[in-house]
Structures are given as structure tokens and as C-alpha cells.
Amino acid sequence: MGRTVRYIPAKVQQVLVLNASYEPLNVCSLRRAHVLVFKGKAEVVEELDRPLRSATDTFQWPHVIRLVHYVRVPRMVQRKISRRALFARDNWRCVYCGTATGRLTLDHVIPRSKGGDSTWENVVTSCAPCNLRKGNRLPHEVHMELSASPRPPAPVLFIRLATPKIPQRWEQYLAPYATPTRAAAAA
Length: 187
Ligand SMILES: [Zn+2]
Fold this sequence. Notes:
single chain, alpha+beta, four-stranded mixed β-sheet, two-stranded antiparallel ribbon, 7 helices, 24% helix, elongated, disordered C terminus, binds zinc ion
């Protein structure tokens, strides 16, 4: 099927992969999805209305697949921190004052000089003034408060970041796992 796949627009070559629990895991290529289904490791839950032809056979065109066996995603080794993913997790707002305007920076809640790590649990989005005000101190030392305790983001955040235009039929699978916004987290 390699020959067929080469002429397909990139958009429909992307397949959403769900865990056995239906939690979104990642996005894979059409080829990879087809192999997983072919080997019985995944089932097609959404297909596109077009036949996927190989030299000898016709298959379902996978659009969303679900793994047959549950895969544990170890949260600790999940993903490296990037500015973009971190800002997205914090809804592009300063976790201290809530502003979404001005320059955003990364702040170590426990400063590196005091042994703070560069982990999802210790790095937050901060506006430049708050970052300056906090300096090398702990939030409570300067009477600053975090709007929510920082956590590693769910895989769905990376799916959204990696896929600028989410196909409409993916939304129903992504929506229940939306990354909580600051407002939701504070509620
Ligand atoms: Zn701020």
C-alpha cells in the first residue's frame, strides 16, 4: 500500500490513536494505523468514506483507532517541557496574576538556586513583571499565590499542539479530556 499512500493529502493521513479506555494517546500516520489494525492491535472506531487499496485488497480507511489493550502512559516520563506546551497548559496566562497580555516567561516555582527542578510540577507560566517580582524567592515569601498546582499535561494537549486543524470527527474523542483551564482548575 506504500504506493497508494504517497498521493494522499497529508491531512487525511493523520490518524487519532485512543487508548483502550478511549483516552486520546497520540496521532500516527495512516500507514502505522493500518499496520496496528491489520495486526489486531487496534480497531477502527471512525473511518473515512474512502477505500484504502493495496495491490490485492481493500481496507477501511482509519480516521480514529482504539488500542485493543490498555497502554499505561507513565506520567513522569511523558514529555519534555517546551515553552509552547507549558504556556498552552497554563492557558497562555500568568499563573500568579492571570494576565494574558504582555510577554510570558517560564518561572521555576522553587527557584533553581534552591534546588527546584525543571519539571512540569515546578515550572509555570509567568508574566515578566511577576517573574521579576518573585525573583529568586518562593511564592509565599513574596505573598504570591499560584492559581492551580502545576501538573504534567494530558496527552490531548500535545495532540492539539501538533495538529493545528483538528478534524471534526476527532473532537468528540478529545473534548472529554480537555486540559483544564485555570478557571476550571480553580473552581
Ligand atoms: Zn503576572
